[in-house]
Recover the amino acids of this structure.
């Protein structure tokens, strides 16, 4: 028997309930993991509230990321074996698999052996943040030396990963944050430039930093009323990736600026990488190498205990964190 967290109807953190579950033996190409840490993600909050790209089939489980020890493997699993220390990549539907539990089943393609230098807490934090940013910034945009990358919501775990990956590739990161409160932390986290959007003119600052050329890439999880400013801050024929809707307000396109800049606007989701075997493998190799070299580092904001998952979810939705929230089991 294992304690698992499920919800019977969409809603706030209070809908989460602990359920005693008999976790079956893994089926073909499945892995059963004794969970030691769980990484929390905005996508899980949205799924719980039925505001995500797929709706929950209640009663539903929750969670994409965990780190732990392999308890058992199913038929035809060759990548890991019982006793291995592993973590999971978000590459499955939460209606089929989930990680909020003491003992969980996941598909073998989502299970990887992370660098031995990482703790369970660190390992539970890395894949959503780094794979999400990698897919857009490295794999698709192929940023390099001389490129400028605008990163809104830079203090989020994915934002911090984007800063590190842009720097790792030789590009120049421009971190956006609402006020100057987190400026020092962002600079210490590797941001080359920081713009406080409620205190400074976003477009003017980007143009100053880039000597009037604009940024080649923007990586935006916010959308909303500031989106036209990102278009204005791009270089001609630059690219903007929209991978979230944190604003909650309508996202409009500035027609004249679109005509002038001729930008590429792309909707983006981690599944474009994690759902493709070749791209997923390339992402893991790139990120592991960066972690081993010390160029990429997980940033943990706060940890909670498994019994305090509801409180942890409320903290997640408060949007005050700097980096990843992790729950220990």
């Amino acid at each position: 028997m294992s304690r698992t967290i499920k919800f019977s109807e969409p809603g706030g953190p209070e809908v989460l309930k602990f359920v005693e579950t008999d976790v079956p033996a893994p089926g073909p190409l499945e892995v059963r993991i004794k969970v030691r840490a769980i990484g929390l993600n905005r996508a899980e909050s949205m799924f719980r509230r039925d505001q995500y790209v797929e709706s929950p089939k209640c009663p539903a489980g929750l969670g994409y990321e965990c780190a732990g020890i392999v308890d058992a493997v199913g038929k035809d699993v060759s990548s890991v074996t019982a006793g291995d220390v592993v973590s999971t990549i978000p590459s499955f539907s939460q209606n089929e698999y989930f990680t909020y539990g003491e003992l969980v089943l996941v598909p073998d393609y989502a299970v990887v052996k992370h660098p031995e230098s990482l703790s369970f807490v660190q390992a539970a934090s890395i894949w959503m943040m780094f794979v999400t940013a990698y897919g857009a910034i490295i794999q698709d945009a192929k940023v390099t030396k001389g490129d400028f990358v605008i990163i809104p919501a830079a203090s989020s775990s994915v934002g911090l990963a984007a800063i590190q990956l842009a720097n790792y590739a030789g590009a120049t990161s421009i971190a956006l944050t609402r006020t100057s409160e987190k400026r020092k932390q962002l600079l210490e986290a590797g941001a080359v430039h920081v713009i406080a959007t409620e205190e400074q003119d976003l477009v003017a600052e980007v143009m100053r930093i880039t000597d009037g050329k604009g940024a080649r890439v923007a990586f935006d999880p916010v959308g909303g009323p500031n989106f036209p400013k990102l278009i204005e801050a791009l270089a001609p024929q630059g690219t903007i990736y929209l991978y979230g809707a944190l604003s909650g307000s309508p996202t409009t396109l500035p027609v004249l600026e679109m005509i002038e800049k001729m930008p590429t606007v792309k909707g983006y989701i981690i599944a474009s990488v994690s759902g493709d075997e070749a791209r997923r493998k390339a992402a893991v190799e790139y990120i592991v190498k960066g972690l081993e070299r010390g160029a990429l580092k997980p940033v943990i904001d706060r940890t909670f205990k498994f019994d305090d998952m509801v409180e942890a979810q409320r903290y997640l939705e408060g949007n005050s964190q700097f980096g990843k929230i992790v729950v220990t089991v």
